[in-house]
Structure formats: structure tokens, C-alpha cells
């Protein structure tokens, strides 16, 4: 398994983690993420089991979080919090959020503390204030978590912003809105990313829909297959239309870049040809409400 993260200097740090008894089979891992500024690794398995461990400390046993989970996210921070702790927000079944504090020391077991919870009833209440016809929630995903502020996606329709205060038992609801996705777009969505109060939704057909997380309004749509085919004719591109499945946001000196990649081709194209297998960058211009594609 390989995990990469960018440093402030623009370089990329890569950690290669071998399959072993602590990590388990790589094919069984649904999601893996390092704690920002630390060496703790969270692994969510297909079974819903969430395990935390330090790959650099072979003597420390992994710690399993009680319960079954569908998603998680470390809190974005420059380094550990008070007492060398990290905070992690996990989405559990049925449709609830749990805020955990995690502490790890050399050759010692990872210590887990459940700090706060947001039950499904509170999430449902926030949605029902906007639409009383909603009777239950089916899913919850954590899109971002930074400085106590999180953004979660409910039932692929609703964007909810919560603030977790250390002195309060329950999180404060800041906003709740419905994103304007079509039925086909809702079912075809393969990845979601949040950056600068903007939600990016990537469909399997290569369409990126850009929404405001404050009111759910559609800001822009980017048709990547149309963009790729706008260059010089390419037989491989015509015979093998790209199928997009990966999407991430990279922070660099010029601003955040949304990068999409089709896994169908790994050959190196000529510099002037746009082909599947090559990254396409979507640059957010902070001073202007526009989105520019770069190749």
C-alpha cells in the first residue's frame, strides 16, 4: 500500500506500507489516511472495521475503534493537539457521527477516547427543517474536517456543516442545503471533494459538477471527455473512451487543483495530445468566479 502527502515546500512524501499482520490484506482496505502532521494511519476495511496504528512503530499494536463505520476523516492540523493527540471524525451506522481523540506513544498501545457524538436524529432534524418529507437518512459521508468545522454529505443530496466546540456536548449546526443533482448524476457520482467552500462531484462519465456548500447552487460543470477530445485526433481515445474513477485536490502555490485521471491508459502521450491516463487540472481562481482547465 502506498500513501502520499504534500509538504509545505511543494514536495511529495511517499510512505510504502508492506502487507503484514497489522495492516491486513490491502484488498480489504476501503480507505486509508494519515493523520496530518503525524505518523498515525487510519484504515477502514470493507467490513466496516476502523483500525488505527503507527506503521513506523513495529512494537505498538493497532487499535480498533468499537463499532461499524462507513467513512472517516482526520482533523486537518499542523501537528498534534494538546498532549500529542489527534482528532478523528468517523461516520458510523446507522448514520451517526463520532468524534474521537487519539493518542499514541512509542511502543505503547494507541489510546482512543470518544469525545463527542452526533446521533442520526440530530442530522435528520437538520434536514427536516429544510424538507419535512424526509423521514430517514440512508448514508453519511465526511467530506472535510478542519479546525473543528466539518462538512458532511447526507444521502448524496444534503450538505451539512457542523462546528465541534471542545466545551459543548453536541456540535452546532451552521448550515444545511440540498445540492441540485439530477437523478442520473446522483447515481453516477464516484467521488466528492471539498475545497474553499466548494464541492466537486465527479461522475463516472467524467462530468465534474461544482457546487457552493453554503446554498447548494450549481456554480459550474466541466465535461472532461469533451475537453480531452478537443485536442488532436487520437485513435486510442476514440476507441477507448475514458472512464473516470479517481479525484483529489492538491494544494500548491497557485491554488487548489482538482485532478482527475482515467485508469485505462498508462502510455506516455506527446505533450500536445490530451489522452486518458494523463491528469487534467482544474484551477480555482481565488479572485474570480471561474474555473480554468489546464493540461
Automatic annotation (TrEMBL):
Lineage, broadest ranks: Eukaryota, Metazoa, Chordata, Craniata, Vertebrata
The protein, known as: Uncharacterized protein
Organism in which the protein naturally occurs: Larimichthys crocea (Large yellow croaker)
Amino acid at each position: 500500500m502506498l500513501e502520499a502527502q504534500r509538504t509545505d515546500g511543494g514536495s511529495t512524501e511517499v510512505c510504502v506500507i508492506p502487507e503484514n499482520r497489522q495492516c491486513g490484506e490491502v484488498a480489504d482496505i476501503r480507505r486509508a489516511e494519515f493523520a496530518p502532521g503525524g505518523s498515525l494511519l487510519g484504515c477502514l476495511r470493507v467490513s466496516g472495521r476502523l483500525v488505527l496504528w503507527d506503521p513506523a512503530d513495529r512494537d505498538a499494536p493497532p487499535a480498533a475503534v468499537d463499532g461499524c463505520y462507513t467513512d472517516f476523516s482526520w482533523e486537518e492540523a499542523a501537528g498534534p493537539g494538546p498532549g500529542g493527540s489527534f482528532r478523528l471524525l468517523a461516520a458510523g451506522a446507522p448514520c451517526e457521527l463520532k468524534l474521537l481523540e487519539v493518542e499514541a506513544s512509542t511502543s505503547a498501545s494507541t489510546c482512543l477516547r470518544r469525545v463527542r457524538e452526533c446521533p442520526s436524529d440530530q442530522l435528520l432534524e437538520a434536514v427536516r427543517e429544510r424538507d419535512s418529507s424526509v423521514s430517514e437518512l440512508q448514508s453519511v459521508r465526511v467530506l472535510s474536517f478542519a479546525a473543528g468545522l466539518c462538512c458532511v454529505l447526507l444521502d448524496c443530496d444534503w450538505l451539512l456543516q457542523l462546528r465541534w466546540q471542545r466545551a459543548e456536548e453536541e456540535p452546532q449546526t451552521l448550515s444545511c442545503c440540498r445540492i441540485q443533482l439530477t437523478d442520473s448524476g446522483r447515481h453516477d457520482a464516484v467521488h466528492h471533494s471539498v475545497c474553499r467552500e466548494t464541492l466537486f462531484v465527479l461522475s463516472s462519465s467524467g462530468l465534474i459538477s461544482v457546487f457552493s456548500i453554503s446554498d447548494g447552487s450549481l456554480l459550474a460543470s466541466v465535461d472532461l471527455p469533451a475537453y480531452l477530445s478537443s485536442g488532436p485526433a487520437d485513435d486510442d481515445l476514440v476507441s477507448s473512451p475514458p472512464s473516470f474513477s479517481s479525484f483529489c485536490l492538491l494544494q500548491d502555490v497557485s491554488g487548489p487543483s482538482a485532478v482527475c485521471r482515467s485508469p485505462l491508459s498508462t502510455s506516455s502521450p506527446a505533450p500536445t495530445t490530451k489522452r486518458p491516463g494523463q491528469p487534467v487540472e482544474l484551477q480555482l481562481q481565488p479572485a474570480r468566479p471561474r474555473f480554468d482547465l489546464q493540461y
